[in-house]
Amino acid sequence: MTASTRTLLITGASSGIGLAISQHLLNQGHQIIGLGRHIESSGLTNPAFLGHTVDLSDLDTLPDKLRQLSRQYPEISGIICCAGQGRFGSLEEFSCQQIRALMDLNFTSHACLVRELLPAMKKQAYSRPGGNIIFIGSEAALQGGRRGAIYSASKFALRGFSQSLREECARSNVAVTIINPGMVRTDFFDDLSFHPGPENEQAILAEDIATTVSMVLNMRTGTVIDEMNLSPLKKVIQFDNKTATQE
User: Could you tell me if 102 and 150 are in contact, meaning their C-beta atoms sit under 8 angstroms apart?
Assistant: First the structure.
């Protein structure tokens, strides 16, 4: 590892966006602490990838696991929060338990994670180029939509959290960024009744987000990318063999 490489923690590292970001940053020589419920399924064999099986949705056991990680890796200088789940439907289709589960995973777990790791990051950020916290949000954090009330609420919460945290961390040399992608071609849609259109310009690739994360991490110290919105060139959503198009 060279002097410019860092130790970065990535949630949701076993698949989709988190896996793509992990692969991209490993190729750049960084050490990755990867968290996931099924981290062994990532297939990553790079010795700089240190995987940990953690269920972020289990808030009863999460604090103890986070404290262990904080003690084990005090050198972490960046957090990239990718873990999340999509569940859509009219509000009355959700039970209270389902509402809580979605909010816990998409928002509360990330707040708990950052809370545990932030003090050590602030201390070391004074003696090195600085730290980074990057949240993978969603276009649903920009505007609510039909059948997306709870999902949008979870992403709006993450976006508001990011904006406030940015103000709190500025004096400590820790930069906070949120990236809001549109539809990304990943297994996120495997259990949903809709997915992006099949053409290249109708969906973002996970690798596009990985490239964006790398750009954020390589920004000059003192300049912060507050928020970035990524969209496919053409928005095409397919619902159960029907297609709704917005170009």
Answer: yes
Residue spans of alpha helices (H) in the chain:
16-27, 62-72, 96-103, 109-125, 149-169, 206-217
β-strands 235-239, 242-246 pairing: antiparallel
The Cα–Cα gap between 57 and 109 comes to 7
Q: How does pLDDT run across 189-206, given as a tens digit for each residue? A: 667 676 777 888 888 999
3-state secondary structure of 96: helix
For the chain, domains (ranges, CATH) are: 7-246 (3.40.50.720)
- The string of pLDDT tens digits covering residues 53-67 is 999 999 999 999 999
- Do 230 and 180 contact (CB within 8 A), yes or no? yes
For residue 197, give the 3-state DSSP assignment: coil
The reported pTM is 0.90
